[in-house]
Amino acid sequence: MMFINKFHLLFIVITVQTVQAQVKEFTQDRIPAKSIYTVAEGRLSGKYQSFYLNGKRKAEGELINGYRNGKWTVWDSLGNKRMERVYENPFEFERIWPPVPKNKLVQLLIKNKYPLQYDSNGIVLYAKIFANNVNWRHKFWRILTPDHNEQLFSNNRLYHLLCNWIQQNKLSVYNPVDDRFSTVFSTMQSDSLVKLYRKKKPFAYELKEEVFFDMERLVSEKRILGICPLIKNGADTMRLFWVYYPDARILLGKEAVSNNAGNTQVKSLDDLFIFRQFSSTIIKSTFDNPYDLPLNKYYFYYAESLKKEQEALELIIIEAENDRWLDLTN
Predict the structure, then answer these.
(1) Which residues of 276-298 are buried (b: 16+ CB within 10 A; e: fewer)?
(2) Helix (H/G/I), strand (E/B), else coil: 181
(3) How far is CA 51 from CA 36, 38, 76, 177, 188, in A?
(4) How far apart are CA 134 and CA 244, in angstroms?
(5) 43-51 vs 219-233, strand pairing mode
């Protein structure tokens, strides 16, 4: 028997409807007290600054799709420079400050230990992660809509690819009754599901990911765990199935992309997800969420508060690494 998960999905999508960048300021009662950042095509891309309660700078740098790029500097609340790096890409860097001591062991990496590499299939190799090396770790759930996601939604591209791979027995999918990939659909169940809903067009995708700071490499990373197409069935929203993202990477890596907004690293759909060349909105996280509820359950009657919390979570991800640098250079 096949179970399709039906539910009512309430979310607020924060998007910028023009291709021009928008500089935004966010003030909150958390640390930092204020952040000034740039949103372009629904993504954190551009100059980023954060400040302490006393008005002094905390961090400054540039983001591309929510990842650090170029020179980044972190200061303590007294104005002392604590870390300066130059990022070649999200996973490769060169440390500028603190300077290399001449008479004692260097405790912090000067350069990344594991440079960006591709395997024989042309996909980015994941660095090995060990649990005892993870300092900050949280899961996030996001919604991807057609806004600024043409590569995924144009001509229903991603959905058609997933359906083809399922029918060709190249990709297994999981029952959407939960998002833990606990129950895989049989070949017969998967085939029946695709035949029944193939002509549908998802209005969005739900994405589950893990964000962490790796003490071995001294970088933050976001790894997608799963993708789930969402369709409308009358008044209900239906999760059709979950795809375990690592299982789909080789297939996605063979699908070329064009018009990648100048990001030369994004050559395939897998690159698009790895380097975050997509727009999305957070709908749930494990950060400060003791009841394991989606954000709309906490802010059901407060749409503006919901938008503020979604915005705050995006900035908390950025500041988590800045806080690691303050700890490591203490």
Answers:
(1) bbbbbbbbbbebeeeeeebbbee
(2) coil
(3) 9, 15, 10, 43, 56
(4) 22
(5) unpaired
So where are the chain's domains? Answer: 5-328
Beta bridge partners of 239: 5, 230
> Both tokens of residue 227?
């993708």
Task: State both tokens at 244.
Answer: 């375990």
- Show Cβ contacts of residue 313 under 8 Å, excluding neighbours closer than 6 positions: 140, 282, 285, 287
How many whole angstroms separate alpha carbon 15 and alpha carbon 148? 8
**pTM of the model as a whole:** 0.92
User: Nearest-5° angle of CA 123, CA 283, CA 259?
Assistant: 40
- Please check whether residue 15 is in contact with residue 279, taking contact to mean a CB–CB distance below 8 angstroms: yes
* Cα separations in angstroms, 297 against 12, 40, 46, 285: 12, 29, 32, 12
What residues in the chain have per-residue pLDDT under 50? 1-4, 7-19
DSSP tag of 196: H
Q: How far is 284 from 141, CA to CA, in rounded Å?
A: 5
Q: With contact defined as beta carbons under 8 Å apart, do 44 and 63 qualify?
A: yes
Q: Which residues of 12-47 are buried (b: 16+ CB within 10 A; e: fewer)?
A: bbbbbeeeeeeeeebeeeeebbbbebbbbbbbbbbe
